C-alpha cells in the first residue's frame, strides 16, 4: 500500500461533493478516476495531493516524506521565466541535485519539443505547451506518486504519445500514477484499475473485459485524418507508415474509412491482449 483513503467526505458550502470515499493505492499501480463534469474528480486528486483537506476522513501515506508530483487541470499561466529557467528554479527549490537537473531537464524539454521555446516566457506559450511544462515539473523529481488531472487536454497527439511512453517508463521505475481523463482510449493499455465517481461516490470498474486489439498498418495516409477518430486506441508512425491500434470490434469500420481516404492497407493483425507491452 502506498496511500490509503478512509471514509473521505468533502463538502463545499454545505454542498456534499465526495461521500465516504475509501481507496487503497498500491505501489506501481496506474489508476484512472473517471466521471462526468463536476462530479468531484479534481477535488479528490487535490485531497490526495495534499493541496486540500477533506471535511472528514483520513489519508494514510506509507511514509511521511512521500514525494508527490501533481499537475493540476490548469497549470498557472503567469510565469515570467523561460521553460528551462522555471524548471531549474523549481527543481532547485525541491532540493534536486544539480547533476540530475542538468541532465533530465534538457532531456525532457527535448522529448516534449519545448527546446525551441527557450527564449520565451512560459506565460506566452500556448495552453498545450504550458501544460507540458507542468508535466515536466512534476516528473523531473521522479515522484513516488504522480497525480495528473486531465493531462491530455491541450496536448497534440505527439505529446500525448510521449506522455504515454513516459508514464510507462515511470511505472517501470516504481512510480504510482493517478490520473483523470475524458474521452480517450490512449491510456486503455496501461491502466491497471479504473474507478468512477458518480454522485460523490467512488466505485471500482471490475467488469471491464480487455478486448483483443487489432493492428492496422497503412501507407500513404496523413496522421491528421485519423487522429481525431475516437475508436483509435493509439497511433504510431514508422517512416511513411501509420500503425493504428483499434479494438477488434471497430476494425472493419476503421478499415472501410481508411479505404475511403485512399489509404493503402499493408496488413491487419490481431495483437495479443492489450496489456502492458514492450512495443
Ligand atoms: N474551492 C471550491 N469551492 C466551492 N466549490 C468547489 C470548489 N472546488 C470545487 N467545487 C465544486 O465541487 C464540485 C466538483 O468539482 P471538481 O472540479 O472536483 O469536479 P470534476 O469532476 O473535476 O469536474 P471536471 O471534469 O469538469 O473538471 C463542483 O460542483 C465544483 O463547483
UniProtKB/TrEMBL annotation:
* Family annotation (InterPro entries): AAA+_ATPase (IPR003593), ABC_transporter-like_ATP-bd (IPR003439), ABC_transporter-like_CS (IPR017871), ABC_Transporter_VariousFunc (IPR051782), P-loop_NTPase (IPR027417)
Q: Name the PROSITE patterns on file.
A: ABC_TRANSPORTER_1, ABC_TRANSPORTER_2
The family database entries (CDD domains) matched by this protein are listed as: ABC_DR_subfamily_A
Recorded superkingdom:
Bacteria
Record's signal peptide: none
SMART domains, A to Z: AAA
* Residues in ABC transporter domain copies: 3-224
**Transport recorded as keyword:** yes
What GO terms are given for molecular function?
Answer: ATP binding; ATP hydrolysis activity
User: One Pfam annotation, family name?
Assistant: ABC_tran
Sorted keywords for this record are: ATP-binding, Nucleotide-binding, Transport
Q: What is this protein called?
A: ABC transporter ATP-binding protein
